[in-house]
Amino acid sequence: MECGLLLRLHFAAALLHFSSFAFSATGQGIGVNYGIKGNNLPSPATVISLYKSKNITKLRLYDPTPGPLNALRNSGIGVILGSLNQDLQKFAGDPSYAAAWVHANVVPYADTVDFKYIDIGNELVPSDSATSILPAMRNVAAAVHAAGLSIPVTTAVSTLVLGTSYPPSQGAFSSEASQVMGPIVSFLASTSTPLLINIYPFFAYSGDSADVRLDYSLFTANDVVVHDGDLGYSNLFDSMVDSVYSALERVGGSQVPLVVSETGWPSAGGMNGATVDNARIYNNNLIKHVNSKVGTPKHPGEELEVYMFAMFNENLKPAGTERNFGMFYPDMTEVYPVNF
Questions:
Q1: Which of the listed residues 27, 38, 65, 161 has the most CB atoms within 10 Å of its CB?
Q2: pTM to 2 decimal places
Q3: Which residues pair with 115 in a beta bridge?
Q4: Residue pLDDT, tens place only, 142-198
C-alpha cells in the first residue's frame, strides 16, 4: 500500500453491493512486509532478528536497500525484492540499465539471500506508465537469466485493476487495465510466475460500511454472506482474491497463481473502522485462515502465499491511516497482540 490510497478509497466504495487467535508462522503461507519509511526504525539487523524471533519466514522489501539486504544474508528468510517505481521507464527503455541494476542489487546477495521474486512496479495499473511494465519485466528477467540466476520476475497490482469484482465469478479487469494486464498475464503464464496482488478488505469496509459487513471483513461472520452460484463466501478476503482469479481466467491466465503481496488493517488514523481491536482481529484471523490451508471457495485446499502489511508503523508516510498499518511500534513493542 505504498501508493494509490485515494484511488483505492474510490474503488472501495463500489466494491460490493449487498478472545484469542492463534498464529503459527511456521506455515508456508505467511510473510510480513518490511517498510523503511521512518526515521526512528530499528537497525536492519535488529529487524531481521525480530523476524527470526517471531519465526516469520518470508518478507517483502520494497526496494533494494543495502542495509536490509545485508541483514538478510544467511537468514533463511524468503524475500520479495521490490524496485522503485521511478525506475520503471529506465528498465523498460534500456536493457543495460536493467542489467546494471541486477548486478548491483541482486547478484552480490544471491548466494546468501533467498530471493523468491523480483517485483517490477507496485500498483502502477492503471496509470500512464502501465504500458512500460511488461518491457521492464522482460528486460529485468533477461538480465537475471544472463547473470545465471533463476529468480521469477513479476509485478504487484491493486484491486483497482478490476472493472467488475462482484460476484467473484464475474471478476474482470477494467477495459483500461486489460490492455496491459492481458500481455502481462501471458508473460507470467509463460514463465510459471505468480501475479502479486494487494488485497485490502479494510478499504472496502471503510468506504462503504452501510453495505459491507464488518464481520464479513474481519473473518468473523458465522454465515455465508455472498452466494455466487454453487460457491459461498463468509469473508471478504476470499471474495476479493477469487474475483482476481476470475479476471485472470478471462485473459487466458487460469494457470497463473496469485500471491497476496499486501494485506492488513490499520489500528488508527481516523478512517472508519481503523481501530486497534479491528486490526488485531483481522490480522490474527487472516493468519489463522491462511495457515488452515482451506484455500478460497474457487481454489479449495490451495494454500495461499500472503504477506501482511506491515511490520512497523512508519512515521515518514503521509499522516493518518497510512502510518498505522504496523503490528509493531518502532521500539519493537506490539501495537496489539499477534500471537507469533
A1: 161
A2: 0.92
A3: 79
A4: 999 999 999 999 999 999 999 999 999 999 999 999 999 999 999 999 999 999 999
